[in-house]
Design brief:
Layout lengths: L1 H28 L11 H17 L1 H22 L8 H15 L4 H16 L1 H11 L2 H20 L13 H25 L1 H30 L4 H10 L1 H15 L8 H19 L19 H25 L4 H9 L3 H13 L9 H47 L4
């Protein structure tokens, strides 16, 4: 009995907290621009407790009755304040608080979370209005809708099975890659708005590189076509996405068998240092060079470019599967080369698994792993040329070559 009473008081406290939080935000808004809203701190707190008590005592029927009564009161108050404030934000918030108070009977944690989010949205009124009216362009709005449709409608409906020649084409994977390309472009746009061009592109590229460094290179190339003034910064960001690739390779090796890192850490470290050095040269030129402002026109990403890259990657996958079918299991090296064209991580994981299973000596993993990485780097060079054109590829390809050579050089360091 005491436990039930304690639980009831805790749930009632959650309802009161929601009402006070939302009411506090509305109370602060009452004095702005000479306004005097009908509901403030006390009204929202009482309404939330009313929702809790009615749901606790009478259930849905009594709660519905009080909701109708509240609706009548809110309607009268709205018409009285129509000339001063034609909006209905406070009215809708009051109904939401009533519902959240009732939800505290069964799901207080969920109700509290929703209440906090709602209070945050109400408090961010000016920032959200400024973003929607002054910062968000028509193209970005259109692209955002396309991205949501692709991610929430098309992707769940795509079949997750392998089709086509050599069973190499998976519609679900193609949709994931398309959504990822669009998402990387949108992430880069947001990062540039927040951090500026010099650091925004780099941060977004490294973050999205953990999802797909190849897709990141393609996305940066698409942006470079629209924003040629920041070509070096975008090229540096594309090269920096390799940091995620190298980090993931190290994590995969450590996860399968930590002892494998003994044969790879010099190569991985040299690759990381080469990437950082090359990207720094592009991002921090001589003092007389000036960083340009980020683009403020166009959309957040290019759907045409995303589809082109997906088609190109599909073709590489089919060719790789055909070569693997022709060569069979003649050697781990051949398999690594052709599978690395699509994904260096899968090749690294399979090679590490062979070593852990005793089918490949530990000191024999470095060469096939680096061959997979080299073929993946070659694939990124092709993607850079297709997505960003000759000038973009002219900056990205040397970075890829330098990093690849540095990793091979790191592999030979113990022998020097």
């Amino acid at each position: 009995m005491a436990a039930i009473e304690a639980l009831g008081f805790a749930n009632a406290g959650a309802a009161l907290g929601i009402g006070l939080l939302v009411g506090l935000e509305r109370e602060r808004r009452k004095g702005e621009d000479g306004r005097r809203d009908f509901a403030g701190l006390r009204t929202f707190a009482v309404t939330s407790l009313l929702g809790y008590v009615t749901a606790w005592i009478g259930g849905p029927s009594l709660l519905g009755f009080f909701a109708l009564a509240l609706g009548a009161l809110v309607t009268v108050a709205y018409w009285r304040n129509l000339d001063k404030d034609p909006g209905i934000t406070s009215e809708v918030a009051l109904f939401a608080v009533l519902a959240l108070g009732a939800l505290c009977v069964s799901e207080p944690a969920l109700a509290t979370a929703v209440g906090v989010v709602m209070a945050g949205l109400l408090a961010s009124r000016q920032a959200l209005h400024h973003f929607a009216r002054n910062q968000l362009t028509a193209g970005e709005m259109r692209d955002g809708l396309v991205l949501l449709i692709a991610a929430l409608v098309v992707l769940p409906l795509a079949p997750d099975r392998f089709l086509g020649p050599y069973d190499a084409i998976n519609p679900r994977n193609l949709c994931i890659l398309t959504v990822m390309l669009m998402g990387v472009g949108a992430l880069g746009r947001v990062a540039v708005r927040t951090l500026g061009t010099r650091y925004g592109y780099a941060v977004s590229a490294i973050a999205s590189g953990f999802a797909s460094a190849t897709a990141t290179v393609a996305a940066m190339g698409g942006i470079a076509k629209k924003d040629p003034l920041n070509l070096k910064l975008l090229s540096a960001a594309a090269v920096l996405s390799n940091l995620a690739t190298v980090a993931q390779m190290a994590l995969i090796l450590a996860a399968v068998e930590p002892a494998l890192l003994r044969w790879m850490w010099e190569a991985l470290l040299c690759g990381l240092l080469a990437v950082l050095a090359y990207a720094s040269v592009l991002m921090f030129p001589r003092p007389r060079a000036r960083a340009e402002e980020g683009i403020t026109h166009g959309g957040a990403f290019s759907l045409k470019l995303a589809l082109m890259v997906v088609v190109a990657m599909t073709a590489i996958t089919v060719v790789s599967s055909a070569m693997l079918a022709g060569f069979g299991q003649a050697g781990v090296m051949v398999t690594a080369i052709f599978s690395g064209l699509v994904d260096a991580h899968a090749s690294t994981a399979s090679i590490a698994s062979l070593a852990k299973g005793g089918l490949l000596p530990f000191d024999g993993i470095a060469a096939p792993v680096l061959m997979a990485f080299t073929s993946n780097s070659l694939s990124k060079c092709v993607v850079a040329w297709v997505s960003g054109g000759r000038r973009f590829a002219g900056f990205v390809i040397p970075g890829q070559v330098l990093m690849t050579l540095a990793m091979w050089g790191g592999l030979m360091l113990p022998d020097l």
